[in-house]
Amino acid sequence: MKEKTKHPGQKGRPAPHRQKAKQPVEPSHADKPGLEARMAAAKMLAAVVDKKVSLDGLMDGEHGNPAYTALSEADRGLVRAIVTTSLRFLPRIEAMLNGLLDAPLPAGARSLYHLLVTAAAQILYLDVPDHSAVDLAVEQANRDPRSRRFAGMVNAVLRRMGREKQALIEDTRSLPCVPDWFLNRLTAVYGAEEARRIAEAQMLPAAIDLTVKSDAGGWAEKLGGHVLPHGSLRLAAFEGSVTALPGYENGAWWVQDAAAALPVLMFGEVAGKTAVDLCAAPGGKTAQLLAKGAKVTAVEQSANRLKRLKGNLDRLGFEAELVHSDLLNFNPGHGFDLVLLDAPCSSTGTTRRHPDVLFTKGPADIEKLATVQEKLLRHALTLVNPGGRLVFSNCSLDPKEGEEMVARVLADHPDFQRLPLDRQEWPGLEQAISSEGEFRTTPAMLSLPHPYSSGLDGFYACQLLKI
Ligand SMILES: C[S@@+](CC[C@H](N)C(=O)[O-])C[C@H]1O[C@@H](n2cnc3c(N)ncnc32)[C@H](O)[C@@H]1O
Q: I need a surface site. Which of 103, 286, 395, 416 has the fewest CB within 10 A?
């Protein structure tokens, strides 16, 4: 696999000059180009690893962490690249640092730890010149009273890392790059070999997939992508902002992982049917239902996310009935032909896009979320018309939030039965259909010639028929 990743923030970046004398803390870091971005990266990593704050929140353009929002667009890109790379390779980076340190870091020296990890990510896996990464890390240490006395050690360790990086990368190549709790769980569920493949797949950032309203082939040509089984369009090597691409402004397509598009496809023909999307924002699946001609009610409990959904539908030129409500309080007095419950979950299937998930969530969250999902599913079943269907889905890799929970609910719902998928009707995705006839995708699936164009988000989806 490719070990050095280009990042958008580095293009055209002036090489930071060396500064010998260590100055007292200054009000601004403008004298050291790139220093603020490095400091922000270490801070973001600390928030994720030590405080379990999600990167989406920290890096929200408007409401994110001020250390991040204060940066230029290019520096934000650099921070994203440093933090996501640090998280993707954390077990290996930790092993390399441990091997290079003469003694373990003092307990509680967390800012020093995050500084070293983020600098190591640049040296080992990003196209940042080693001398810049080292100089800025030393500067960072010098400007932080907690780390200042370690500045010499930071310099020595990182310089050696730069000199020995090829051997270090080789020596740690077999170390799985996910936390132990996750690897153990993957191994228990999928077996050792598949667990290794999933762990490996999550080291690469995901390609960008689009769902197009029509003419996927034409858009593939225009945008330089390729059409996947069942119609999603993949932009494998895309870098930059999707909002600048043709077709964005006039709502010809929306961003949606190919696996996330499958739950709605399971309904088949939906034109003219009544459908409710119970956990609707940001609206990828609502848009699919609308594009296929269903009459859609979209329920969402978060006002902000409902606003975002409305904005997305406006751009796409779609209209749905929007309901701001906890779905547990949604009792419209009538049923629907189609009910979609794309439930909140641990999101462990999305770690290629969100490598922070494995550090902000753990086994206890999975148990808790499975309980929430069960409650939501039990209520969702009350909204299905006789002869109607419900699709339950989420982006967790854990059967506790999928197969096991659904089996529990079905056990005391004789009025519902599973509608198994027929593998022959899903060419190219046979591997993703379980023996129960449900979708169970993982990032290690959809293996295409180039690793950067391979993979799917981990998804679970089943369809239930009301008898
Ligand atoms: C996994 S996301 C849904 C993604 C969406 N289906 C799509 O494809 O774009 C889950 C959504 O459910 C919402 N949600 C969580 N609990 C809810 C509840 N009890 N009632 C309604 N919405 C809820 C969350 O705010 C979040 O927007």
A: 103
Domain total for the chain?
2
pLDDT at 367: 98
Residues 264 and 128 occupy one common structural domain: no
Instruction: Mean pLDDT check: name the lowest of 25-34, 256-265, 329-338, 372-381.
Output: 25-34
The pairs formed by 237-245 with CB atoms below 8 angstroms and a separation of 24 or more are: 237/207, 237/452, 237/453, 238/207, 238/208, 239/6, 239/8, 240/8, 242/208, 242/210
Mean pLDDT of 352-370: 97
Residues 54, 63: Cα–Cα separation, whole Å:
13
* CATH number of the domain to which 25 belongs: 1.10.940.10
CA of 462 to the centre of ligand 1 (A): 17
Order of strands, sheet of 233-235, starting from the edge strand that comes earlier in the sequence: 226-227, 233-235, 208-212, 253-255
Q: Cβ(232)–Cβ(258) under 8 Å?
A: yes
Give me the pLDDT at residue 304, please. 93
Q: Would you call 395 a catalytic residue per the annotation?
A: yes
ipTM: 0.99
Q: Flag whether 381 is in a domain.
A: yes
Is residue 302 lining ligand 1, measured as CB closer than 6 Å?
yes
Structural domain that includes position 102: 8-171
